[in-house]
């Protein structure tokens, strides 16, 4: 077996499959694009689903990649086991309807065992297979695997709901008896017993069936195009090759761990309890890559995952004695380790460090709040002579404040308390069930359409024509290719002026006419067929015939509105970079007929001044009447031109570069105005958050923008009339003047209220009652607002008239209650909660003062009568 670095392992895998005719696909962002079924890219095949389900046909059916991935379904195990990670790399080779079992197994064996490649000893490899899959068993025998190294496993069948599925065969490496102290042997593998001896390094999925949950597996239909999907975990492979005790003692993690040693002053022992080192090293990798790909810490979705990872890492830092912010200092070393294949971490290092440090600082304040909660819980237990910390409180500390259970247990034991583990587990289980209920449903692939996949007819989209004549090449109806059709169908023409929806730009609509100019069908949608042809969805008014020539005409008014919005999107993207920074990259867009929507990565709300400047810059470029130019070239040349590739898009050998002067240069396959002046006007109507670290701008152009301005002008004129301003330009100063007058009037009202309160207090504070040794005043008073109640409470406190004060006032149709307490044994918050139901209300507050509101004035008398009973 060759000794290799992680970089060499990754490169050798890719080089091997490149030598077998595979195209190397680059690793894509961890944040899924156009796939709502995934929270993260969680496997090498996740980015290739469109090829496997047949919705897109790749240029080369043989693909290989090294894909970064995140899985967070078992975060708690990271650091406890030798191989759990949140972020990992999956090396894979894929066949889309090309080679199958014979080649996949042969090449897998060759790559692992050939002296030219990894040079693993054959006797150290074991393979599992699906018992009914005799073909895989026989193929392993043919390449030279001994029968006693082939293990049947009933679970070796891959499927996720409906869609492509099939048996899989896994490859394990035997690390020897030193990792099998009880000498259990091959039984560990055969019975799927958790162990450190037999390490799975590769899985080959033989995707050959269309899974159908309604029938037994034995009745699944064969796929029209069989696929191969493999996955080799880089971290495991490197651990085996480098002879590491766990995945963490490899060159992927040890440089991070060495830096943690320097920060903590502690030493990492490969055979000792190193959970905190491992957690920090793993989590900072996930944080660095995910933030670099546009995800940001937050309170929901992937943002919550990142926040949880960061807080867990920080708490383990504290266990190592690191109390200052430190995680951000590890970003650089993460970037350096991965730079050979993933330069983006170092490229975005400054931004990633900024986000991580800011989140650490925020969490430091949260830890203080959590510590206060812990102290309150402990004080309560002591006062109640309890010995056990309740599971619900442990969970609150864990879930809300990020306190690991072991930290809470340690603090509790120091304070002399036990831990309610069962209660905590129950609360955790309830949360997990809520999370499962809220998770995005789906994840399986679509069923292949053999008819659409088989359509090889060449079709071309014309960027320059809005109407043309073209022969009808293919008609598909009810998933069958037909020669003629009525009703609704999908059709392909040799040439078309209809733009197929792509890159956020909606499809063109229009009509199809016969040779006499009579409209015979309406085009209601256009999407890309699996082989890339524009596939028109049509509502046929008469009948369409394959081979006939028709006149195709788009709705020009619709197209004109859409392209104004599309070009404005390019200007907006550039303006965001100028105003917010280069991290504000596109995370999705929609260029519709009436509006544009642009999603981008940013860590906070865009303020009014920033929005104003963004809007100003876009309009400035519109007024400068800049020509919008498009050239076709290759990707490398486009990058030399400074073209910005859009988030998550895949580009072919020939790309279109859209330039708007020197202001914007982007790769884009859409249609655009010829000059920015055609956009007319640009108006932002909304900016909002749509998820952790993702913001959205809604905007209008042209006529719609003008109408928005007119609507605002109408509101302004209405305000002008209401404040009686002679000129629109003087409306703001008039409003300001009225605000000053209102403020003065409010001060006068407050002064009068104070005088009224003082006058009432002489009589009210004479009515003192006593119950169980506690003196109290309970009275209905007349005040204009809740402030009047507080004024009376201030006077009561100064006069020290009683231990407890309860005041009730009917204000309009509502009832307000104030409770104040100077007694150690009477908590105002508890008392107001007990009294509020009498007025159909609720309330709360602090021990010394609390308030409630209700809707039932008829209950005031009963409330006052029951004050003494609740003391």
Automatic annotation (TrEMBL):
Binds 1 zinc ion per subunit. It is an enzyme of class 6 (ligase). Pfam families: DHHA1, tRNA-synt_2c, tRNA_SAD. It catalyses: tRNA(Ala) + L-alanine + ATP = L-alanyl-tRNA(Ala) + AMP + diphosphate. PROSITE patterns: AA_TRNA_LIGASE_II_ALA (PS50860). Residues 4-711 form the Alanyl-transfer RNA synthetases family profile domain. The keyword RNA-binding applies. Its EC number is 6.1.1.7. Residues 728-762 form a coiled coil. GO terms for biological process: alanyl-tRNA aminoacylation. It comes from the Bacteria. Its cofactor is Zn(2+). CDD domains: AlaRS_core. Consists of three domains; the N-terminal catalytic domain, the editing domain and the C-terminal C-Ala domain. The editing domain removes incorrectly charged amino acids, while the C-Ala domain, along with tRNA(Ala), serves as a bridge to cooperatively bring together the editing and aminoacylation centers thus stimulating deacylation of misacylated tRNAs. Belongs to the class-II aminoacyl-tRNA synthetase family. Catalyzes the attachment of alanine to tRNA(Ala) in a two-step reaction: alanine is first activated by ATP to form Ala-AMP and then transferred to the acceptor end of tRNA(Ala). Also edits incorrectly charged Ser-tRNA(Ala) and Gly-tRNA(Ala) via its editing domain. This is Alanine--tRNA ligase. The gene is alaS.
